[in-house]
Amino acid sequence: MEFVGYIPLLPFAGFLVLALGAQRLTRPLVGVVGVGSIGASALLSALTAAGLLKRLPGETAFTKTLWTWIDTGGLHLDMAFYIDSLTVVMMLVITFVGFFIHLYSTGYMAEDKDYARFFACMNLFVSAMLVLVMAENLPLLYLGWEGVGLCSYLLIGFWYTDKANGYAARKAFVVTRVGDTAMAVGLFLLYNHLGTLSIQPTMIKASSLWPHGSGTLTLATLLLLGGAVGKSAQLPLQTWLPDAMAGPTPVSALIHAATMVTAGVYLIARTHVLFMLSPLAMTVTAMIGAATLLIAGFSALCQHDIKRVLAYSTISQLGYMFLALGVGAWSAAVFHLVTHAFFKALLFLAAGAVIHALHGEQDMFRMGGLKNRLPLTFWTFLAGAASLAALPLVTAGFYSKDMIIWEAYASPLGGYGFWLAAMAGALVTSLYTSRMVILTFFGTVKTPVHHPPGLSMTLPLSVLAVLSLTAGFMETPHTLGGVHIFSGLLHYALPETKIVQSRITLEILFQILAATTAVGGIVWAFFLYKPQPEPAPSRLPKSIDRFLFSGWGFDGLYDRVFVRPYLALAHLDKNDIIDRFYLALSQASLGCNRIFSLTQNGRLRTYVWGMGIGAAVVIFMAVTL
Amino acid sequence: MIMAWLILIPIFCGILAWILDRRITGSARWTALVALSSNLGVLCFLVRSFTVSGVTQQPYLMDLDIPWISSAGIHFHLAMDGLSLVLVLLTHLLGLVAVLSSWKEIREKEGFFYFNLLWVLGGIIGVFLSMDLFLFYFFWEMMLIPMFFLISVYGHENRIYASVKFFLFTQVSGLLMLLSILGLYFVHADITGNYTFNYFELLGTPVSGIFGILFMLGFLVAFAVKLPAFPFHTWLPDAHTEAPTAGSIILAGLLLKTGAYGMIRFVIPLFPDAAAAVSKTVMVLAVAGIIYGALLALSQTDFKRLVAYTSVSHMGFVMLGIFAWNTLALQGVVIQLICHGLSTGALFFLAGVLKDRLHTRDLNKMGGLWAAVPKMAVLTLFFALASLGLPGLGNFIAEFTILLGVFKADKIMAAAASAGLVGAAVYSLWIIQSAFHGPLTIKETIADLSFRETTALVLMLLGLVWLGMNPGPVFRMAQPSLDHLTRSVSFEHPGMCGVSSKPVTCLHPEYSGGTVHAAP
């Protein structure tokens, strides 16, 4: 496994070549470097996975140290990669999904004048994301963490001439940095008590040092959770993701659906020992997940822009993953992460194909009737949508979401409350997904199709469509065959979820309920949003519609509470109030100078008067004192 | 003697540049370039020989002690430890960058310009090497006058106001330091009967009570003004904005570092208990500076003024780290001194380049320049990212280790200072937005970076990447001297450190709730 260092290095090399040689490389060459470096990295990842499988179960993980990064004052950090089954799953998702999205981009971005810059940023992103998941210690993870944030910033603001894009990019970076800073403080706290920041030793030392539910540990995990919440766009830091759709669609697919936004889920799974020691942190995680999945789901129901529907949907699905993490359903969370990466990347890419075909039109109310115009796009989109809506038995999303819904109830940390939230979320998901499909592909044609997608775009769509439908079969509940390939592999890195015995009897019933909800949602949606020439914008009262459309008013609230006061304060004090003091000092001395210089007027009479008064004062003082 | 030459070469060459320039135009800049390059060559040779012979394990690498004014106990005493070496290296690097940045910018009174430039650098090198307090004060003043001329003669519109302000702030605070030096000198003589300005002999002089505090404050205020620490920072935005590019680079990159160096070398070692007594206050001011600088940077419309306020913010981290006084924080401080020098120096360089092309520093008049000058845009982006502490670059290592160290000393301060990281993101990205993103605002075509400009900037870029990926060599160079400093200073009343009967070497109580502290 000597080569694991090259896995993030290859995309980075691609980035360097593209960044330095942007002017000299021809377009095909840019594509070859951009896509090829990810492809090579994907192959190496597959080899790593094979190597790890061969070593299992004897050796469940291995570490590759490249060099010593920091070694001073008792702090020792290596540039080192830690590979276990969780890492391998993430690496495969990142490189393979990343490869297909890069391939797709060669078609999607073909007309763009900054072709090389686009691929340079995308390659840098993949490199940073790989560092994030492969990091052996938390600061190295943080390096990848901020690195992906940077690429997200660069790519959201890719079309920089529009000021709105720049604003969205900065918003994404700054909001996530609030979370990142919390996470950094969490690292300081951990280091201060444990004396190490390597992930595995940290977890071992934490469990021997701290008792279950320790206050310090809870604080540290909540701070880490802050980082995860920022990156994964969870409540209360979810506001950046819908605006992040300003970037090119492949960016949304790769960064804001499949990989970067799942970094928070990965972080919590990676440090699961810390979270398991703190019941409060677990409960908070689950509650954040439950609240987010509902809030974002309802917002998705009222959007007009197809990409914003998908953005809210992503937030909502990430909420499912957080819910799963919070109830200790570790494998279920990562399983949903994987299937979500497939079907949401697919949905974004298919939506991109639609937008591309309609020359940049993103409003679903100006689409419609594309079912027959873009058949391949339609069928692949439908596969992704079915998976998102968890259409029973035949989609990957069904198996992963069902696992979460079931364990939200049946795990020792779960219960009816979390189960109900997950079920309600499932219904909303079905509704908004069907609404999106109906508005986009059914009804009458409103915008003519310019050109259907080429092979570089349809191939990734087809591959991801197959994965969206079939990836679920690697993990099925025991009522439906009981395949446990995925969780079996992950259990080398993450603990198994214990199911409360008394609840097991209900499993069949709950599965039927979940399946019915999904199907029922789809059917209901066809009644609500049935294809018609002029679809009604909303089925809800106008005020509620506005409220949900705006994402529950979070943007306005934060704008009023944080952004505007900060800006106002900055601009109020533009000339630095502190300087007034020194200015006053200098003016006071100038004033004194003026007063004293009045006495130097050159008139003998004044001087005589002065001497006289002075003498009188001296004599007076001599006499009286 | 090599150390003396390090100072004398810039001084002689400065005079030479001034004389030569009257005969041959353009000779001054070449003289400066050659002087600094040869000095740098000597330094590199020194570093090599130190690492080969393994003397880097000792705190002091070289020592030169020549009596100067014997009757008053004044010596020409220079000594170099790892800390000084690192800072002298930085001085030469940024000195070269400053020369390159002025290559075309300065075309009038060139001789006098390079004379001043070299004398400032000579003074700075002297400050970093002096181990005699009188000599230190001599060099401290020697940096000031040429800098004053650089601003007042070669500066921009409002240069007289800025240069006088700069002069008054530094001069007044410098005089306070002189009083403290003399006070310490006489107290020491009273106790031992030995009249000396020797740093090593003055160490450990017991100055008790109010005088201890006053003497310490004399030093502290001088260094805090130079740093600059909140609320003594207001000279800095004016001086930076009005100075020529080279002046800004030297101010931000080097002059500010002398303040930090003074705190590490003098304030805490000479007056440990007095320093401990004020450490909480100083840390609060440091955090205030971090946040205040970040806040004000955002509202500036002048590119250079904006960068000046970011310096206030970054130097807050330095002061915070120094007063945490543990190896981790101090190592972070050393890295921060270098990285801030490089990243801020580069940003001033770029501001100078933009001013050269657009004849304005006003960010409102820029915008959308990415398409026009891609190289400049990418490099500005890089240094802005360094400034916001992006992991992988040196500034991150610096701030991360400082905060880790500070967290050991004071959790609340470390957490509060972390808020500055968010502020840094806001202002750094604002630079990029207002200058390079958005719709293109200018009509004429402007030239991208020339070969000379690119070389200077890429060197600084490589330095930051290298320090970000492998800061080990700098850590190892500074380690013995920092260890020596932290171990040799003992605190009678580790003041804030709670109750302890015997002297300890910590300024703050280390956390003691089952902590696993890896001993250095």
Name the descriptors:
heterodimer; A: 625 residues; mainly alpha; two-stranded antiparallel ribbon; 70% helix; globular; B: 520 residues
Topology readout:
The complex is a heterodimer of chains A (625) and B (520).
Chain A: H1 6-20, H2 27-55, E1 61-72, E2 75-84, H3 85-108, H4 115-134, H5 138-156, H6 163-194, H7 199-209, H8 215-231, H9 240-243, H10 249-258, H11 263-270, H12 272-276, H13 279-300, H14 306-326, H15 330-357, H16 370-373, H17 375-388, H18 396-410, H19 416-441, H20 455-470, H21 485-490, H22 507-528, H23 542-549, H24 554-572, H25 577-599, H26 604-624
Antiparallel strand pairs in A: 1-2
Helix pairs in contact in A: 1-2, 1-4, 2-3, 2-4, 3-4, 3-10, 3-15, 3-20, 4-5, 5-6, 5-10, 6-8, 8-11, 8-13, 10-15, 13-14, 13-19, 14-15, 14-18, 14-19, 15-17, 15-18, 15-20, 17-19, 17-20, 18-19, 18-22, 19-22
Chain B: H1 2-23, H2 27-53, E1 60-69, E2 74-81, H3 82-102, H4 110-129, H5 133-154, H6 159-192, H7 199-202, H8 209-226, H9 235-242, H10 245-270, H11 272-299, H12 303-324, H13 327-358, H14 374-387, H15 394-409, H16 411-435, H17 451-469, H18 472-488
Report on the architecture of this protein.
- The complex is a heterodimer of chains A (625) and B (520).
- By secondary structure, chain A is mainly alpha-helical.
- Helix content of chain A is 70%, strand content 4%.
- In chain A, strands 1-2 form a two-stranded antiparallel sheet.
- In chain A, a hairpin with a 2-residue loop joins strand 1 and strand 2.
- In chain A, helix 2 packs parallel to helix 4 (115-134).
- The longest helix of chain A has 32 residues, at 163-194.
- Chain A is globular, with a radius of gyration of 30 Å.
- Chain A starts with 5 loop residues before the first helix and ends with a helix.
- The relative contact order of chain A is 0.08.
- The mean pLDDT of chain A is 89.
- With 520 residues, chain B is mainly alpha-helical.
- Chain B has one domain (2-512).
- Chain B is built from 18 helices and two strands.
- Chain B has a two-stranded antiparallel ribbon.
- In chain B, helix 3 (82-102) packs antiparallel against helix 10 (245-270) and helix 3 (82-102) packs parallel to helix 13.
- The longest helix of chain B has 34 residues, at 159-192.
- The model of chain B is unreliable at 495-502 and 510-520 (pLDDT under 50).
- Classes of the chains: A mainly alpha (625), B mainly alpha (520).
